Amino acid sequence: xxxxxxxxxxxxxxxxxxxxxxxxxxxxxxxxxxxxxxxxxxxxxxxxxxxxxxxxxxxxxxxxxxxxxxxxxxxxxxxxxxxxxxxxxxxxxxxxxxxxxxxxxxxxxxxxxxxxxxxxxxxxxxxxxxxxxxxxxxxxxxxxxxxxxxxxxxxxxxxxxxxxxxxxxxxxxxxxxxxxxxxxxxxxxxxxxxxxxxxxxxxxxxxxxxxx
Length: 212
Prior knowledge:
This protein is of the alpha/beta class. It contains eight helices and seven strands.
């Protein structure tokens, strides 16, 4: 990891915690206003009615899920400032919990889909994957919007600098992700989904059916 990437990691950690109040503004600026649209792009991948979001951030996806008839959405995040922002956005109807993804505070087989958008390295921690597998029902989905490959050249440079865009999204990266998730009994597809502003790097992993 080079010096610039280390700086950006510290910057994003501060943005997610101490300076969470500025998160939406910074995200909008660096994505030319596309960040929220990218986050909401995972909705078509959802299956079932009971949804858990890992790392809810300021709550945009939770708000969209709450507005969809028939869905019961819960979410968790380890950042207290993000929790406060999300609660302000969602009001009293929120189902938010402060917790680490490596120790999900919900019962086994509680959810049809588990979602994470633009997560940090924690998403491929084996404990995180094991916990996601545990709380999913048989044939449930883990959906991860991992990164974006922007079409705008300037956006592409910005995201390459921040480490958010896997510009080498080729077979070796896909194979590594598939192999990692297979270790906790997920059958995985890695897709590049084209939208007007770029290509979304989406991981869709299905929990293999178990008898108990």
